[in-house]
User: Fold Nickel import system ATP-binding protein NikD from Streptomyces cacaoi.
Amino acid sequence: MNQAQTTTAPGPKTATEPGPAPSAEPLLSVTGLTVRFRMRAGRQVAAVTDVSFGLAPGECLALVGESGCGKSVLASALLGLLPGNARTDGSALLHARGGQPRLDLLTADEPTLARTVRGRRVGLVPQSPAGHLTPVRTVRAQLTETVRELRGLRGPELAAATVAAAERAAFPADHLDRYPHELSGGLAQRAATALALVGDAPVLLADEPTTGLDRALVDRTVDELRGHTADGRGLLIITHDLAAAERIADRVAVMYAGRLVELAPAARFFGTPGPRHPYARGLLEALPERAFTPIPGMPPELDALPAGCAFAPRCPRADERCATRPEPDDGLACHHPLVPAGTASEETHA
Ligand SMILES: Nc1ncnc2c1ncn2[C@@H]1O[C@H](COP(=O)(O)OP(=O)(O)OP(=O)(O)O)[C@@H](O)[C@H]1O
Ligand code: NI
Assistant:
């Protein structure tokens, strides 16, 4: 979506900016989101730090980054699903829509989240579907209940809508009467996706929705998720699968050690001139169809982060400036970007 491709956090745009009116206000504005886990002996895990982004109507934003960088914690924070030892800061405004009021997801109380947000205003495809499916009930029973609750259907209509909901996520109808433990990982994933799609929530968070699926099913699943953004809904997809992100995303957000280090239009990120942050470039170059060269080293521990740039110890371009943490600017937090600011726009076709 063009209107969403230029800013780190699409706040309210000025009247002089072009773009269709419906995108003037994002669906979701996350500002300075920070999550800390309090551990024993005064230890603290900095899982998410000062993350800001917006999700525009009709937009698909892909959130990528190595394991443990805070992606799922970010999603959990948006749904009020963090454990008791977590403390959040910042805001995550879910804007007014369809008669529903504006709401800060970080401060909303549990009854509000349970009754009006989860599944209705913000859907979730969870990272571990097995843990989110009820073990003692068949997939059909769970899907039927969700369709009844969220769509208000009864009788034959309900039965038909349940089968259609399964079909939407490529969950085979002849497996509907199985219990979660009777499903493969890929089928459990599809059941969870089917459940998450039922409510047609304005914002859908999909946390690794394609784990355990083969390429054809990955494509089918992400296309279905992308289809969710019709009618001005938004999709935040968390994925390790950069090919899937390239297939469906409008923008890509790259997270490292709890922070967003780059936020870029997908066309620019995957095409020319490519990622601007050395870490983002490294992620892309690690792909088999690219250089197939992994980034050396490991991400830092989140309870002992360095004062400067957290990527510096692994960065081929690091220098003395990196002892100071780079402030995010124009969708990038790096002292020595691969593509200098101002040259990253569409006219750069070297
Ligand atoms: N309840 C918790 N208490 C303490 N630390 C936690 C808790 N939950 C998550 N963490 C830590 O927060 C960090 C971020 O975890 P998160 O699950 O968000 O990573 P991720 O980016 O989703 O990784 P993956 O790609 O493997 O799913 C990790 O270091 C993890 O150990
Ligand atoms: Ni995760």
Notes: The first strand starts at residue 28 and ends at 38. Residues 160 and 267 are 39 Å apart (CA to CA).
